[in-house]
């Protein structure tokens, strides 16, 4: 029997979830046991907490429509905050402005933002939101609102969140 892609968790979901968890496990174990330099750990933190939510937003948004997948990522985002927030003010994670762990909220923000965008879009148009990228299968014609929500999401994740979490000081 063929699985329904709109309700089931697929292999790609397991792969991404496990990869993300393994990345954070490696970061924490490396920090605890000093396996790699702090500079490398902080770069991995930036990748995992800043870039991954942006990548998921533009490439994985269709899978995040699946309630089970969305709830798993939401649990991961909350767990990440609970586990990592106590480390935020440690001197090892201090950046030029703020902390390298300031962006641990980005995954949660991305998930909530995508949920709100989808809800507003569905309420207004009775269709699913499409995040505009070059490499997606479009299930319908895109419109200006798709572009607006896509750009707004990218602006929030890549510009507004770093300013809010790292302070307003640019110098």
Counted by DSSP, the helix tally is 5
Low-confidence stretches: none
State the assembly state of the protein chains: single chain
Question: Judging from the principal axes of the Cα atoms, what is the shape?
Answer: globular
Mean pLDDT: 87
Task: Estimate percent helicity.
Answer: 55-70%
End-to-end Cα distance, whole Å, is 60 Å
Q: Strand tally, please?
A: 0
Beta-strand content: under 5%
Description:
This protein is mainly α and 171 residues long. It is built from five helices and no strands. It has helices at residues 11-33, 38-59, 67-84, 106-125, 144-166. Helix 1 (11-33) packs antiparallel against helix 2 and helix 2 (38-59) packs antiparallel against helix 5 (144-166). It is globular. The mean pLDDT is 87.
What descriptors fit this protein?
171 residues, mainly alpha, 5 helices, globular
